[in-house]
């Protein structure tokens, strides 16, 4: 008998059926558990009320707490950022979105869009001015790319910046901007005579306003705004010097999409766990519904897609840490995990029956949030085309 045959198998863990935790080191697990505990203490007791009311009260305090956890600009180096690995950042995104997509969006927009843009493309003076306060959560940032008439086609944006002497003058509108009305700084992308450029815009600049968008049925516990730039005058050094063309904002979106690959699985996990707990206790025809074959088939299928998605996220994270992650691979992850997460939520809802639509359970809240996650930062169709081009070598975008 071989030595390996004498080693007893570890018990099957329903919470980790593939043993993915074995791929994580103690620091990874400590970061995951810290974020999970914070979300359980600070978000879960209140999130149903916040969602029902369509508000995120105390967002500035939440941002400071997230800053103290090191969750803002988490994978960036220096300037008060935690310098965590991509996998550790992904684990944090998963735990935050298991609480609510709106909380993960707050962190993602702050760190992976606004802070990343300044860190990657900004001058040293810009980094020193903004990043330490943003990492601490003292300054909230937003990222202005999407416009009312231009979402998937940012190259056609109408927001423009013109030189006036040594100054820049920005005019235009941005739409669906997370954190917009509470931000102290906005990274805004605009057409110039030299192509698309990024600008660091203090939100107290004359001509800048950010009216909040109301009447949302998704991401209700999140601040979403329009940005209005009415001849906002900025000094010459407001431009991000290292970003020219669409490569700048698209690289920021790739960084943020990576967090979505993990985060979507957090929403899926929360819904899956709610369905399993319900199936164990809900009785019909004299026994728990979890004992019926059709319910077990649903639970098994949800578990397979959930943990395949987490494994995919982990693989992409290791590739990012090794400097090998391509944008097409991020599209692969975003397409699969957002699509499967929303399907898991819909299946979980069927197990809960009518109770599935109640805010007493997280399932419908996650499902409606994922309707936004499915289409923001690249719709499923756009990611299909990215992969289609990579697989065939033929461009179907135009």
From TrEMBL:
A GO molecular-function annotation: fatty-acyl-CoA binding
Occurrences of domain Acyl-CoA dehydrogenase/oxidase N-terminal (ranges): 26-138
Entry keyword Transit peptide: yes
GO biological process terms, semicolon-separated: fatty acid beta-oxidation using acyl-CoA dehydrogenase; fatty-acyl-CoA biosynthetic process
Cofactor(s) for this UniProt protein: FAD
Domain Acyl-CoA dehydrogenase/oxidase C-terminal intervals: 246-391
Keyword terms of this UniProt record: FAD, Flavoprotein, Oxidoreductase, Transit peptide
Gene3D superfamilies: Acyl-CoA dehydrogenase/oxidase, N-terminal domain, Butyryl-CoA Dehydrogenase, subunit A, domain 2, Butyryl-CoA Dehydrogenase, subunit A, domain 3
Residue span(s) of domain Acyl-CoA oxidase/dehydrogenase middle: 142-232
Domain of life according to the entry: Bacteria
Alphabetized InterPro entries for the sequence: Acyl-CoA_Oxase/DH_mid-dom, Acyl-CoA_Oxase/DH_mid-dom_sf, AcylCo_DH-like_C, AcylCo_DH/oxidase_C, AcylCoA_DH/ox_N, AcylCoA_DH/ox_N_sf, AcylCoA_DH/oxidase_NM_dom_sf, Glutaryl-CoA_DH_mitochondrial
Sequence similarity: Belongs to the acyl-CoA dehydrogenase family.
Protein name listed in UniProt: Acyl-CoA dehydrogenase
UniProt source species: Streptomyces venezuelae
